[in-house]
Structures are given as C-alpha cells and as structure tokens.
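Single Protein Entry

Contents — chain, fold
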Amino acid sequence: MQFPTIEDTVGHTPLVRLKRITAGRGNTLLAKLEGNNPAGSVKDRPALSMIEQAEARGDIAPGDTLIEATSGNTGIALAMAAAIKGYRMVLIMPESASEERKQAMAAFGAELVSASKSGGMEEARDIAETMIARGEGKPLDQFANADNPLAHYLGTGPEIWEQTGGTVTHFVSSMGTTGTIMGVSRYLKERNPDVQIIGLQPEDGASIAGIRRWPPQYLPSIFDASRVDRTLDIGQHEAEAHMRRLAREEGIFAGVSSGGALSGALRLAEEVENAVIVFIVCDRGDRYLSTGLFAPEV
C-alpha cells in the first residue's frame, strides 16, 4: 500500500458556504479555506510548485541554498517545502512581520534576514537581489516566476470549478504577488469567459498583511491587468472588522487579508443577484495573535 507524504496534502482545500453572514438578493457566498494547507496558507501551492518545477528543469538540486523575499506566508510555505526537499532556505522579510510568522519559518529550519519596517517588502526584495548577485544562493522569485500562477491554474482554479459544479459567477481575491488571481482567472475564464474576476488592493495608507499596492517599479511581472475585471480598494479597519466577523459569526479563524476578501465579496453582493461568489481565505488567524487583532474588547 502506497501512503501519501506531506506534500500530497497540499491543495484540495474545502469550499464552504457562509451561513450567518448572508448577502441576500439570492447570492451565495463561498469561502475557499486555504488555511487547511499543511503549512497553513494558500502559498503552500506556489511554494511547492516553484521548487518542483525548478528541480524538473535542473535549475536546482537538493543541498542548494534558496533565497526569497517574503512578507510571511510564502516564507513559511517555502520553509516547509525546503525542509521536505532538502534545501537550505534563506528568507528576507520586513522586521514588522508577526512573531508567529518568524517562528514558524525558523521551526522549519529557515534562516531569516530582516529588512527595515520602513523599507518593507521593497527593501526585502532589493536585499534578496543583492544576495543572489553575490552568489549566496539561487532565486525562486515568486514575483516573476510563472510557476507561481501555474500552481493555481493547475490546482486552485480547477478545484473551484469542480466544487461549484461550474456555477461560479464571481471570484474575489486579495492581490499580493498576484499569483493566485492570475492562475485562477486564467483557468476560470477558459471554462467560462463570463466569470468576473475581482482583485483587492489596500486603500492609500492601509497596511494589510498579504495585500499590496505596489509602486510601478516593483509591480510583479507575473501580473497581467487584463486578467482582472475589476479592482476594489480595501480599508484597514474594514478588513480587520470582517476578519473578526468570519471568526465570530462563521467559525472561520483567518487572517486580515481574508477579512478584506469577505468585505470585497459583500460589497459585490450588494450589486448583483443570484450570483455564486467565491472568495479566498488565504490563511489561518493563529499567526496573527501577537498583533492583538483578536484581543477581547474592553
């Protein structure tokens, strides 16, 4: 008998209907629970994809050092994948990342390099490029690597189509590296060009983990604006409030970007009727506990 290994558990996550947070107007809200992946986020999919595809091309081999800039979830996923496959993993991340994220990466054996809070992900990406140029390791580069959206074209998109029986009308996703929305959009549009793809970015001044508004020079090269039908700006308070609603009203313990996705889905539901709206719950809420976002109200 052939038993599965841990990488076999990546993907095939549940799609669940919200029961208490209802949109009315005949609309159905469905949450794709990516926190059910083994390392706890949607990033498990591209992390494994980028390493396995690079191995297949002969670009990397076990024992190599891999370098990646990350704000958190990709780093945790890559640290897990590197542990499975036998790589040394060096992760560069802003010092503002939550302690849970840093400790999770370290638990998998990754080495951490900090970028300043003020420099954020842009500085982390610059540091990674400098280290790679010095020959200190090999890049995966989630922002430019086609194997990132490929994971969602081959996995997340087909799962959503199958789980909804092809009835999905709208797909809502936060945009960070944009790999999720690019891959899912490509697949769903091939099956039904009328499916609407809605991307989320933070409004000016908002700081929402997992959602980015990139300066033009740092816009991920995997991003193709033609694959997104509409973009919504999400406020920080709005995302945090809906994150807490998911936990308290639906029993779905998720992070801030997932609250933003729910908010975007609800906004959309005010405009449409008899729609099947799928939104991505990117990760689990337990990696945000130290931020105080779930602290009891006093």
